[in-house]
Structures are given as structure tokens and as C-alpha cells.
Amino acid sequence: MPTVLVTGANRGLGLEFVRTFADDGWRVHACARNIEKAKAIKSLSGDVNCHRLDVTDGLKVASLARSLAEEPLDLLINNAGAYGPRTGFGETDYEEWASVLQVNTLAPLRLVERFVGVLEQGEGKTVVNISSRMGSIASNSSGGSYIYRSSKAALNMITKGLSVDLGPRGFTVVSFHPGWVQTDMGGESADIPVQESVAGMRKVIAGLTTADNGRFFNFDGEELPW
Ligand SMILES: NC(=O)c1ccc[n+]([C@@H]2O[C@H](COP(=O)([O-])OP(=O)(O)OC[C@H]3O[C@@H](n4cnc5c(N)ncnc54)[C@H](OP(=O)(O)O)[C@@H]3O)[C@@H](O)[C@H]2O)c1
Fold it and tell me: pTM of the full predicted structure?
């Protein structure tokens, strides 16, 4: 069976990715920065391997990649994310901005740079970056949320760049908007439950071909403008 690695896997969308891939018989590497908070992962059945990983810790990312170096990886899901302070124009916290960029923007590229070797050994050769419609420059009609929006817009640029650099090596790299989802980040009044979001994204992921390399999808498969 294929192998997937998911970051930010202890709750929300990440946990649902882990649960459903494991149910389907995949080998799953579930990464969480705080193993003590990862009880939900440990209670799952299937081939689920839990790793401590703060995605902003470059040494730990490199060390995990080394420890999994003999194992082909089919799919990397850069899911870990942070919203940061919900501030408007004139209230920007520049230190918080830097830390959100570390999680949402720098870490996904670092993961790909460190895991590209094992991804190349896998058959799937797929990288999924969980972005957001908030990162779409074309869709920004309401302003605000400079920190989160810019971090995801930059992530989208990374998706595009990776698609150009890794496409010739057989990779498919895409960004997803998971919908407005009922998680700690999305809040209780969000549009859809995690199950619907992840089921939708998994359906799209299952149907990806190299022709989709460098595209930005809604969770239901609709293509979104950058
Ligand atoms: N929910 C929505 O409506 C929505 C909409 C658009 C995009 N998204 C994106 O979807 C992804 C998942 O979000 P979610 O809704 O599931 O949010 P969530 O419930 O708040 O979960 C966020 C996850 O990211 C992890 N994380 C944060 N910083 C980390 C770090 N430095 N290292 C490792 N893990 C870290 C968290 O770990 P801890 O438990 O340790 O904090 C948690 O597991 C994010 O990229 C988010 O931006 C969500």
C-alpha cells in the first residue's frame, strides 16, 4: 500500500487525513509537534506511525527525513498551519507575522526539500499544500487578515515554483482550499465538517495526474484563481 506523511496531524483536518488514509490501508506517518497532545492519533487503528515534529524546527525536519530515508513516500501533505492574530489594518503584529510565515510558508518548502528524495522513490510523487482561498490575490475583495493571507499567498507561489522545478521529475504539486471547515481554526459556525472537507480533497487527490501539476483546487475539485 502507498505511504503518506501528514503534518499537524493531532487535530482538525490533519487528524481526519490520518484517520481516513489509515482506514483505507495506507501506511501513515502522522507528525505532531506535541506528542502528548496526540492521543487521538495513538488511538487510531491501522499502520499509523506517530512522529514528534514542529515543522519550524529545521534540524528535526532533516532528522525525520533521514530516519525515513529508506522508505518510499507517495504523498506529502503539508497541513500544519496557524492563523495568527485576527487583526485589521493598523494593528499588524510583525513578530507574530514572522512566526506565522515560519509555519505556513517556510516549513512546507523545507519539508519538500528534505523529503524530495523519498518522494522520488515513491510511485505517487505528489505534494499537497493545504493553502486557503484567503491566499488568493484574485479573490481578495474584503482586505484585512494581512498575516494569514500573505502567508498562504506565498505558499501558493511555492506550489507554483515546485510544480515548475519538480514537474520534469514526474511530480504533481498542488494547493488546496479545504473549504471553511469546523475545526479550531475555522470555528463552530464554519460551513462544513472536517469529514466533508477531507473526503472531498481525498477524492481530488486520488484523481490527480501530472496534468494537474501546479493547480489550485477547492476541496470539491473546483479550480480556484491564484
Ligand atoms: N479550518 C478552516 O476553515 C481552514 C480554511 C482554510 C485553510 N485551512 C488550513 O487547513 C490547515 C489545517 O487547519 P485546521 O483547520 O485543521 O486547523 P487547526 O484545527 O487549528 O489545526 C492546526 C494544526 O496545525 C498544527 N501546527 C501549528 N503550528 C505547528 C507547528 N509549528 N508544527 C507542527 N504543527 C503545527 C497544530 O498543532 P497543535 O495542536 O500542536 O497546535 C494543529 O495540529 C491549515 O494549514 C489551515 O491554514 C483551514
Answer: 0.98
